[in-house]
Design a protein that fits this description.
- By secondary structure, the protein is of the alpha/beta class.
- The chain folds into 2 domains: about 220 residues, P-loop containing nucleotide triphosphate hydrolases (Rossmann fold), CATH 3.40.50.300; about 60 residues.
- The strands form 3 sheets. It has a 6-stranded mixed β-sheet, sandwiched between helices. Strands 2-1-4-5 form a 4-stranded antiparallel β-sheet, covered by helices on one side. It has a 4-stranded antiparallel β-sheet with strand order 12-13-11-14, covered by helices on one side.
- The protein starts with a strand and ends with a helix.
Length: about 300
């Protein structure tokens, strides 16, 4: 188990991490979520011993975090970290060797992974010849070559098309089933909701929500409707009984101000839109996220 307790980190003019605490267990995926600049990456860099915290404790299986634990961790950074002018297999072998993987073993694993990602044809190419998505896949593979027990993924789906996103999700489920401890950092709420067992939401350096998705949503019960329609959905922002709207292409998730008879809702909506479907739903993680960020911004003002 990973345990983070009251983590604090100051930079020159700001407190980037302000008393963050959470835990993550093996065989589960923990989503570390929040807006850009929330403190997610700083927290991850502390976990990796790249940065030192000002105070607080990081424990892995009850042992204080130290540099000797690095080989137990696989890390996929958000930024590209591959040597662009070198051949792909050479780069992967080199990075694997830094984690103690012997060349013969590493080469076998590399080609097995490349085959799974349908990338055997690029093995002898230079990194700079690959697309953004293929470079992301190479970095993901490299993070796993030493069979780490603790995996940290920072925006792992960046640059991937839907087919490869699905493949990556399948692989993460396999890693989870094998007992890996997985920390998944993202600001994509829909992905986090589908993939994570538990979430820790950070905003302005503080934990503002944590727990299982069920627990989190139970704390944000609201009068929420999801509708599908034809017409201009912008009209929803002008209706008095709607508190907030997440508007998509021909659909919307709306939080109501007060409980209202569904028949009245349907009647009003049909006056303004061609309503195809309406249902009362629990708020999505994205709706909760937007509500928290908005409330935080209004409090500062």
């Amino acid at each position: 188990m990973l345990q983070i307790t009251n983590l604090i980190k100051h930079f020159t003019n700001a407190k980037a991490v302000d008393g963050i605490s959470f835990s993550a267990s093996r065989g589960k995926i923990l989503g570390l979520i929040g807006p850009n600049g929330a403190g997610k990456t700083t927290t991850i860099r502390i976990l990796l011993n790249i940065l030192s915290q000002d105070s607080g404790e990081v424990l892995l299986d009850g042992i204080p975090w130290n540099p000797e634990m690095r080989n137990r961790v696989g890390y996929l950074p958000e930024e590209r970290g591959l040597y662009q002018k070198n051949k792909i297999v050479d780069v992967m072998l080199y990075l694997a060797s830094l984690k103690g993987v012997e060349p013969k073993e590493g080469r076998i694993k590399i080609y097995d992974w490349l085959k799974r990602f349908d990338m055997l044809n690029v093995a002898k190419k230079k990194v700079e010849e690959l697309s953004k998505g293929n470079q992301q896949k190479i970095q993901f593979i490299t993070a796993l070559l030493h069979d780490p027990e603790f995996i940290i993924l920072d925006e792992p789906f960046s640059g991937l098309d839907p087919v490869n996103q699905l493949l990556l999700k399948d692989i993460l489920q396999e890693l989870k089933s094998s007992g890996k401890l997985i920390l998944f950092s993202t600001h994509q709420m829909e992905t986090a909701e589908k993939l994570c067992d538990e979430i820790c939401m950070i905003n302005k350096g503080k934990v503002c929500l944590s727990g299982t998705l069920k627990e989190v949503k139970s704390n944000f019960k609201s009068n929420t409707i999801k509708i599908e329609f034809d017409g201009n959905g912008q009209i929803l922002n002008q209706l008095d009984f709607i508190k907030s709207v997440n508007l998509y292409e021909n659909s919307a998730e709306c939080e109501l101000n007060t409980p209202i008879d569904p028949k009245n809702i349907i009647s009003v909506l049909n006056q303004n839109l061609s309503l195809r479907k309406i249902e009362f739903v629990e708020p999505s993680l994205e709706t909760i996220f937007l509500q928290i960020v908005k409330s935080s911004s209004e409090a500062v003002q």
